Amino acid sequence: MSDTHSQSRPHPWHGLEIGPDAPQKVRAYIEMTPNDEVKYEIDKKTGYLSLDRPLRASSQLPSLYGFIPQTYCANRVAALMDKAEIGDGDPLDICVFSERPITRSEIIVNVCVIGGVPMLDDGEADDKIIAIVEQDSIWGKITDISEFSEILVERVKHYFLTYKLIPGKENRVEIGEAYGREHAEAVIQASIADYQEKFGKS
């Protein structure tokens, strides 16, 4: 463990490192847990977790949910998704599965990337990377989404397809077929390059 430390809290998006083994292994900043019934997300200006909105749908988040630090979804990320016009302008989202329940948010988790789900939200690329907690007792040896539980991937897709539903309004969200680790790593690399172009190298 390093004996250096920050004198102040680093911004979770810009101040945390993605990890030395990206894109195979990354650090995830967790905004939400499966127990949450409202939508939390990082406040981009302050770096604190904020309440975005109550969730109308009854479906439950099937995993930990957050983002990968020092990533940004813009043109390069959009180029990897059919019909996407632009990235959503946010850090790259990540869903993290753990055999042991993790009930706290605002934590940093070291994870292994296994795949992802392409989500098109009103023309914007909004990928959901899927990962496993590093050294997980049950899933720790999985290297690709093809080895993972199909029903859990289906729950990820269902959650994001329905969590923005508003009665009387058209659903502008499309969810494609899940992709494997190789494509997920390409999406992460694209988001790193988009971040560096937008904000400069860290």
CATH topology: Inorganic Pyrophosphatase
Mean pLDDT: 91
* Cα-to-Cα separation, first versus last residue: 21 Å
Order of helices and strands: EEEEHEEEEEEHEEH
Q: Based on the structure given, which CATH architecture is correct? A: Alpha-Beta Complex
The total domain count is 1
Helicity range of the residues? 10-25%
Spatial strand arrangement across the major sheet: 1-4-6-10-7
Specify the overall morphology: globular
> Major beta sheet, specifics?
5 strands, mixed, barrel
CATH class descriptor name: Alpha Beta
Number of helix segments?
Answer: 3
Structural class: alpha+beta
Strand content: 25-35%
CATH superfamily membership, which one?
Inorganic pyrophosphatase
Q: Total number of β-strand segments?
A: 12
| Low-pLDDT segments | none
From the alpha carbons, calculate the radius of gyration and give it in angstroms. 16 Å
